[in-house]
Amino acid sequence: MNRDTLIHIGRFIILILVQVLVLNHINFLGDLNPYIYIIFILLAPININKSLFLLISFILGLIIDMFGDSGGVHAAACLIIAFFRPVALRTVFGLSYEFQTVKLSNIAFGEKLAYVTLMVLTHHIVLFSLEIFNFSHILLIAKKTLFSSLFTIVITTLVLILFRRSDS
């Protein structure tokens, strides 16, 4: 096992622990939580095996669901954003993604923010649509998506800035 693999395994475990032990209990303004565990999906290597990546993303969401007793909504949302990730990368980074030269530690803040925002919004729309699962509550879905997304984007961006690696 190489150093990068160990870093990704460590990131997987730490993000799950922080999410289930700390962040799931915040309930800011009643029911808003940051969902930073998706940083694992955001930072996965560009050239990772697609099937393995989808499986790991599903397992990540499933573990969050098991700790939160949330019936699979996190697993579904993680699977969707893992599947959507190449589209987001291509949209934000263009040719840099096509030639697999994107490294999140080396990109401009604006591009990093655009990528995080696109992924977080996608995750949260799926998550809250499945959690509420009632079209008559579309305003509640929109409100929870908007405010939780803002909270998650700010926290995720801070984490990415504070813990960025200089060599990756």
TrEMBL record:
Major place of residence: membrane
Superkingdom of origin organism: Bacteria
Location in the cell: Cell membrane
Membrane-spanning segments: 12-29, 35-64, 71-93, 113-133, 145-163
Keywords: Cell membrane, Cell shape, Membrane, Transmembrane, Transmembrane helix
Membrane topology of the entry: Multi-pass membrane protein
Keyword check for DNA-binding: no
InterPro entries: Cell_shape_determining_MreD
UniProt record similarity statement: Belongs to the MreD family.
Full protein name: Rod shape-determining protein MreD
Gene source species: Aquimarina celericrescens
Gene: mreD
